[in-house]
User: Fold this.
Amino acid sequence: MSELFGRYGLPLEVKYCKKCTISNQRPSSEREFGSKKDATKRIISFDGEGVCSACRHNEAKELINWKEREKELTELCNKHRRKDGSFDCIVPGSGGKDSVYAAHILKYKYNMNPLTITWPPNLYTNIGRKNFSAWLDSGFTNLTYFPNQKVHKLLTKYAFLNLGHPFQPFMLGQMNLAPKISYERGIPLVIYGENPAEYGSAIEENLLPTKDASYYSSEFQLDDIYLGGVCTKEIIQDNNLKYSELDAYLPADPYKLKKNKTEVHYLGYYINWHPQEMYYFSVEKTKFEPMPFRVEGSYSKYSSMDDKLDWLHWYTYYIKFGMGRATQDSSQEIRNGDITRDEGVCLVKRFDGEFPYEFLNDCCKYMEISKETFLEAIESFRTPHLWEKRNGKWKLSSSVWSKRR
Amino acid sequence: MSNVIGIVNYGIAGNIHSIKKAIEAADGITIVINEVSQFSDVDKIVLPGVGSFKDAMQELENDGFLEALKNTTKPILGICLGMQILSTLGFEYGKTKGLNFIEAEVRPILVDAKVPHVGFNTIELINSNEVLKDLENEEFYFMHSYEVVNYTNISSLTEYSGHKFVSSIQKNNVYGVQFHPEKSRDAGIKLFSNFINLQGEG
Amino acid sequence: MRTRIIAKLDVKPPYVVKPIHFEGLRKIGITSELAKKYYKQGADEIMYIDIVSSLYQRDIVFNEIEKTANELFIPFGVGGAIRSLEDISKLFHIGADKVVINTYAVQENPEIINKAAEIFGNQAIVINIEAKKWGAHWECYTDCGRIRTGRGVLEWAKEVESRGAGEILLQSVDKDGRNRGFDLELCKKIVESVDIPVVVASGAGSLEDIKEVIECAKPSGVAIASLLHYDKITINGIKKYLRNNAIEVSK
Assistant:
């Protein structure tokens, strides 16, 4: 290890953004195909004033001419709108506030004919299922692709045990499905909700309305693709699987995308995205409901609540990067002016990194591992420079509420 | 002519702020009475209304206010609890002696309805009371679980769930209202105005 | 007895906000301005509930309360992050007429109800209940409708009464901000189970909703938020409608 960087290539010196609550340990979104254990992460960037790129992106939003952007969206819709009654755009989602908003405005404001598509949660929560139905009840056709559950559970298990990233299979399917449906069904336009840069991806990705195709497509050999940290070829051989059973997790075909003229856009480029207002929109216009109580690890009731595995995801994230759901939620709300940084720090101090008791049993059962195996795996991912043992208990070595700014 | 209203400070309870604001809205001048010497600086006295009978009487005694109040001929307005302590005896948390300005006892309200009695209600004028001048048709805000039980010096009654209780009293320089004029909108401000405009010491 | 029509301000100081299902912090306006607006419209009371200070585990923002209390010649109930008798005393001194307590009493120290009622008089102590329906019963929530307590609403309502609370403010996590009517069953059940006044809140979407909850549950008061904040109706309008429907309200 060099002197500056520790495990996962994370900076040894932990710094916190001056404006929000995230630290310099936060990874950006990454191309998931090549993920291997202990691989170096690309992290969120901090500028010379100690402000993170997500906050800077937010500041830059003030300077954007949103009327112009709306015009661009209108033109995009005009270009793709079909008059023959067939579907003219794909809206991926599962009935969360972002997809409710996206589908709703595309259909009812921009007069498009969206086909909603869903890569379903690993393990639906009650509220997730309810909101999914509510979404369709407000007038949408939906195509849901359920992967082979035996395969999905296996990959989730691999991803958890090998990478400490149980969400990987879900994320792969989610990212790859829409572009594939696009060329399979001949619907070039795919529109997602917000832009990941809202949360800290490379800021240059926000200058365009479209997502970089290398995230969801590539030419590949099965030897080159790793799922859950295991080579795909090996997965197929060891488990006697057929290619089609893993297809959903594999990148889209770039040639087919080109031939179909598939474009993947983010509404967050065209609209001044304010997640809390998306919540209000969903609740006011549809039968959408928030969680009946706050999610473990945060204070929020309106974000990421349809998948029981999400609870696990955020806990492993916390172990690896020292930040959890409360950090994410509070940073987002700080940037959007809903709360102040001080308030965000109070919330992080109070809720971040809570142990996921609520759905732990369900998740272990799903992955067919024991609780002991779960706990051992967690320990294997704990990033040394972020944790220390005090009175026999693991504590963060530095925290946003104790760190001097 | 000097016309300063002194609001007696009961310690941790008391609703001085609202009363002060309401008197000022009625163009009155107020000071808060924290020490017995201040009684000579004022022309009229207000006894505010949050707390318990027992604690209020204890505070008045501790502060040395009892004699000043009993001996003054300056107009006194008791509000809610402030009216209740004008009585002989109170039965909130045991038996406590009051100021004994009127022959009355303070007892829990017993009705077939929600207690405390909370909300706007009307008054029925029985005898004249200068502070209630032109206010007989108004509504006032009540918030109490105890009532004053007496048969003399009653100036108005109020009905609650079929039960009539004393909502204001007057005897010589002493006035009492069970309701909160500082919480009764314009009607309450008018009441303070009436009090401010009373003649001075009797 | 006249049913009180109360304006409820959910506050994230210095703004009034309007959550839905106790989630969201959409700003409506400056607290002191809105309080004055509703006072002029004929509100019988103003309820100021700081909905975030318990959640953020920080102190009461006293100066905002003092500012709001100014020039309000109607009862002013104040709640949010009350944790001690000192807090209560200070609130009365800056203009509160009643104090409203939830989180601290139900999660940590219900004894505060007894002590506060004894010192300040029970009529000045209001207990706020955030009720969430689960099957056939309701559970008490705290920290702005987000933390479960495991306490049943019915049982807690009776307990607070026996401890000396003078009033209950009853809110519904399921209905709040949704403008689709009150939880009538909840309102009726709680009003009938205690002898102290109950003010019901959460769900008013129309004049008919307000009339319905009064006729069905017979509360001492109805607290309104969304309908007023989004200027769908005024308090005068509500009172006029209720009077026309033979429901007694103050002038």
Observations:
- Residues 4-244 of chain C form a domain with the TIM Barrel fold (CATH 3.20.20.70).
- Chain C touches chain B at residues 1-4, 44, 69-71, 73-76, 85, 89, 92-95, 97-98, 118-124, 166-167, 195-198, 220-221, 250-251 (CB under 8 Å).
